[in-house]
């Protein structure tokens, strides 16, 4: 039995769990290659126009894998934290894929609720039953997968740079270097280190999130808002670089909340879609780096007069 796992959406964050689970059950794995031009083009061709770039890219990974596996895993990740959801597109991802791509093998699409052990067990028993009837083996595979995931660390925390910025956005926009055109490398080359939300404890974000008039319903909104606000309040960084998908409803809410909270603290919003050109991204990053440098923020970001720059956003 060969299980296909598309290297899209939350693969970068949760691949230890899923790959370990299926291999413990005795399945062989077929994982699509890192995103490239051919994968993006395949995704654009088969996905609806209105979808955001990461969802189109996911469709491309499925297209690339469909002939290489007996069983295709399409993660329907519903919930990672109690009382929150990920995004409506995650909830309906299997339906989008099944109705857009022809010639798919059998699929695993069971809803994934990771906010409780009971939810994980339910998912594991349903998904695992597609490979083996041995319930004890499935439970053992789940334990091994959880342990594997807990050992996994991700995120950026660049040290030794004169300027540091918070690199914010959804994980697939930050860790898929094809989607973001390797924004971290571009910033590093200009002498700017980046830090991502994994380097910050949830407890540090919590007071910022609690100050909102309503608890965010979406996990991405809570974490990104908490990370940016706490980074600015704690004077941890000299700027924010926000990588955002064009047509992402959640990002449009987060950006408004963040702007309201950080005022004129420097923030560069890079809106990306399949038409985004690299030259435009380079120009905007260089201009932002120049602005940070000239502001003297490096020297005086501890001074009470430190916050005096503006937020800039325009399509790339
Ligand atoms: S959160 Fe935004 S970018 Fe991510 S899948 Fe949903 S709409 Fe797309």
UniProtKB/TrEMBL annotation:
Q: Name one GO molecular function term.
A: kinase activity
Give the originating organism.
Thermoclostridium caenicola
| Origin: domain of life | Bacteria
Q: Which UniProt keywords apply?
A: Kinase, Transferase
Classification via InterPro entries:
CoA_activase_DUF2229, Dehydratase_Activator_Redct
Q: Where do the DUF2229 domain residues begin and end?
A: 2-199
Q: What is this protein called?
A: Predicted nucleotide-binding protein, sugar kinase/HSP70/actin superfamily
* One Pfam family this sequence matches: DUF2229
């Amino acid at each position: 039995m060969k299980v296909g796992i598309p290297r899209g959406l939350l693969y970068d964050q949760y691949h230890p769990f899923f790959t370990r689970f299926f291999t413990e059950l005795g399945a062989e794995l077929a994982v699509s290659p890192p995103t490239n031009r051919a994968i993006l083009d395949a995704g654009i061709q088969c996905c609806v126009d209105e979808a955001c770039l990461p969802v189109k890219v996911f469709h491309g990974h499925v297209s690339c894998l469909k002939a290489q596996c007996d069983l295709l895993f399409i993660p329907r990740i519903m919930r990672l934290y109690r009382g929150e959801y990920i995004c409506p597109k995650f909830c309906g991802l299997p339906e989008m894929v099944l109705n857009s791509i022809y010639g798919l093998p059998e699929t695993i699409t069971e809803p994934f609720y990771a906010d409780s052990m009971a939810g994980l067990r339910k998912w594991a028993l349903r998904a695992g039953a597609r490979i083996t009837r041995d319930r004890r083996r499935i439970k053992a595979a789940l334990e091994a997968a959880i342990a594997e995931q807990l050992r996994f660390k991700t995120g950026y925390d660049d040290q030794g740079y004169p300027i540091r910025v918070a690199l914010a956005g959804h994980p697939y926009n930050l860790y898929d270097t094809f989607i973001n055109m390797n924004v971290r490398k571009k910033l590093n080359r200009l002498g700017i280190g980046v830090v991502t939300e994994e380097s910050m404890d949830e407890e540090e974000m919590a007071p910022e999130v609690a100050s909102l008039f309503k608890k965010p319903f979406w996990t991405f909104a809570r974490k990104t808002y908490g990370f940016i606000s706490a980074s600015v309040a704690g004077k941890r960084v000299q700027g924010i670089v926000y990588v955002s998908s064009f047509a992402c409803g959640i990002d449009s809410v987060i950006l408004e909340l963040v702007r309201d909270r950080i005022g004129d603290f420097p923030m560069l919003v890079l809106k990306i879609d399949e038409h985004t050109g690299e030259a435009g991204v380079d120009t905007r990053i260089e201009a932002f780096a120049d602005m940070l440098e000239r502001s003297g923020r490096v020297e005086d970001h501890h001074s009470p007069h430190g916050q005096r720059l503006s937020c800039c956003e325009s399509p790339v």
